[in-house]
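wait is this the right file?? whatever heres the structure
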């Protein structure tokens, strides 16, 4: 079932919310690729996009939390580090095993669960800091 964006995921920082929506779209695309059988062939491209986009997003979001003096800044960095290690692990599997349906499903399951959980538990702390970011801009 696709992840649908709603206000519960909003951080109050428009660029972060836009990036999260792009990540939702990427995860939903993975789900669609699993359903229609096209994902295995596109897995190297999907992995490259995910790796690049996640790295850029994490950098930007961590900068926002730091500038906004958010209480969750360190927890966010630690969560990002762990997820990044997971991304690198998937990339290693892709290189060693090649594209497979199982790798695609595993990537989808981990990414979709982590994305929603992370936003709801940590990223929403940006709401309390958004005004500081606006005033600093």
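ok assuming it is, sequence goes like this
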């Amino acid at each position: 079932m696709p992840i649908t964006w709603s206000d519960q995921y909003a951080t109050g920082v428009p660029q972060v919310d836009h990036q999260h929506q792009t990540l939702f779209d990427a995860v939903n695309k993975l789900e669609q690729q699993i359903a229609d059988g096209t994902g295995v062939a596109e897995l190297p491209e999907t992995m490259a996009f995910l790796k690049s986009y996640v790295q850029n997003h994490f950098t930007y979001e961590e900068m926002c939390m730091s500038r906004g003096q958010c209480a969750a800044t360190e927890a966010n960095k630690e969560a990002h580090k762990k997820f990044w290690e997971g991304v690198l692990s998937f990339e290693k599997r892709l290189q060693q095993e090649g594209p497979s349906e199982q790798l695609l499903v595993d990537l989808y399951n981990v990414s979709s669960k982590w994305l929603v959980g992370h936003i709801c538990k940590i990223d929403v702390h940006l709401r309390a800091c958004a005004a500081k970011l606006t005033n600093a801009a």
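The helical segments are 14-36, 39-67, 73-97, 101-121, 130-136. so i think its the right one actually
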